[in-house]
Amino acid sequence: GDDCGLQETAEGTPPIHIDGTVVERVASFKFLGIHITDKLNWSTHTDSIVRKAQQRLFNLRRLKKFGLSPKALTNFYRCTIESILAGCITAWYGNCTALNRKALQRVVRSAQRITGGKLPALQDTYTTRCYRKAIKIIKDITHPSHCLFTPLSSRRRGQYRCIKAGTERLKNSFYLKAIRLLNSHH
């Protein structure tokens, strides 16, 4: 040990304590359906949902072979595949790599070929959900994030103050994306 009373872990970083209990460090964990890594990148999460969605594509292909209508196939896609791809999308999609986004969109394109109809791009789903979520937060004054949506002066009605982003991660975060969307809709 050292004079400060801090013990270092094998990685050379001091352990984290919460209420006197040491918190175990892990490379990644799943929380509320999202894979979170110690590096805060989304590759583990996107790889996982792409794999899961591709498994569901098999079922979509079988349903097409059974002669289901394009509308029924699209409904199946929306319920079983899109729900996997877009789960908590506002939390992670903004900071995905181009490679991750390409893999996700490949699943959508495959489903589109199978259903025979036009399906929304994941980027469009992300944008729509960011906008809707921002509106809900603005309307709910009890929401913990309500204070992050600060209106500009009364002359610029419908415009919100955008905080300066010092990092790409912050620039691509839900809050800044949502504020940019809100400001572009007025």
Automatic annotation (TrEMBL):
Molecular function as annotated in GO: 2-oxoglutarate-dependent dioxygenase activity; methyltransferase activity
Residues in Alkylated DNA repair protein AlkB homologue 8 N-terminal domain copies: 42-83
Pfam families linked to this entry: ALKBH8_N (PF09004)
Family annotation (InterPro entries): AlkB_hom8_N (IPR015095)
Protein name: Alkylated DNA repair protein AlkB homologue 8 N-terminal domain-containing protein
